Amino acid sequence: MDSPAEPLEDIAVTEISGGDGDGANMIFTFNDLPISVSVLPSNGLSTQNTCHLNPDSRPLQDHIIDTLSRASICEDYVEYDQLVDEVLSVILDIGKHIFQQSVSLQSQYCENRTLHALLFPEFLYFRLEAPVRDASLVSIEAREANIILSIDPVRDKGFVEELEIDEDLPCYGPDEVVITDLYLRGTSSVTAAVRVGEKKVFCKASGYPSGLFGSSQGRELEYLGKLFKISAQQETLRIPHLLGYIHHKETEQILGFLRQWVPGRVLSKIDIGSVSPEMRQRWSSQISDIIRYLHEHGLIWGNAKPDNIIIDEEDDAWLVDFGGGYARGWMDKDLTETKEGDEQALAKIEELLRKGSGTIRRE
Q1: What SUPFAM superfamilies does its record include (predicted)?
Q2: Does domain 264-355 have CATH number 1.10.510.10?
Q3: Which of 125, 166, 211, 320 has the fewest CB atoms inside 10 Å of its own CB, making it the most exposed?
Q4: Is the pLDDT of residue 28 over 70?
Q5: In what order do the strands lie in the sheet with 33-39?
Q6: Residue 343 CB-density burial (10 A; 0-12 exposed, 13-18 middle, 19+ buried)
């Protein structure tokens, strides 16, 4: 009788850092447990002193530092993944059993985990030591790490709140928000479907001391706030409504926002070849109308691509994600977050819907 298969682990690298051979760091989550692994040069100063050595005799930790340093400046996605995977596999080979034991002890990662547990997690810190080819992980204190993480705003009063907040909308503490579906997680940021009371909504939040100011989440909150004010004039505008804010209960700093949940399908995942020409034209017109309305009110969609278009249960098109950024493959890079960039992306989306062939590729 075959033994049961070992369950797959949920592992995601959220941040790497490197320099000029003076050390490196990798941060990842292991079944939602945040882990930081620091690597120092074998001689304590720089990896450059061992570059001349044969790979078989060079200290592994020096090679890992150089690999992470290359990855930190790499612009090729495939090469980046290869470099990161090389280092991650070394860490998992020697530390997987440690991480599994730690996960079982983390009672905070239960079925009804809250947003607070993800924004302000307790990190595990390790140092990778490999003066030869054999490697080991040593548990360390946060102050010994190359990067110290998860600084709760209550301990850092240096932030300046510069977000425009609508006082009529409710604020919730992160411990009042229950995660139902986690879509994206950074070192201390979360994008997820959540439950507040009995209501399902969409949430973006950040636990960094600087909050949302200057971030993509901050831009999206600003735009949703402006749209919230003008949407009363246009009730049929298919852009999710801003519903409230996430704030730190002690500092009252805004950590994130809640917006309307739009059930449906992402346009990039729809086989448009199976959709009637009339329906494709309907979507094309709706998308164009919303973008034109935004531009008339001095707003830019920014991250314009099929990944950010939802077709709801009534077969109507909605635009989501106003965090800005470069939509590679849908606009020229120098047109990022401009009216012209929106129009260029719209033209490509309209062409795909008009042709109606195959599945729109996700970029």
Answers
A1: Protein kinase-like (PK-like) (SSF56112)
A2: yes
A3: 166
A4: yes
A5: 11-17, 24-30, 33-39, 124-129, 136-139
A6: middle
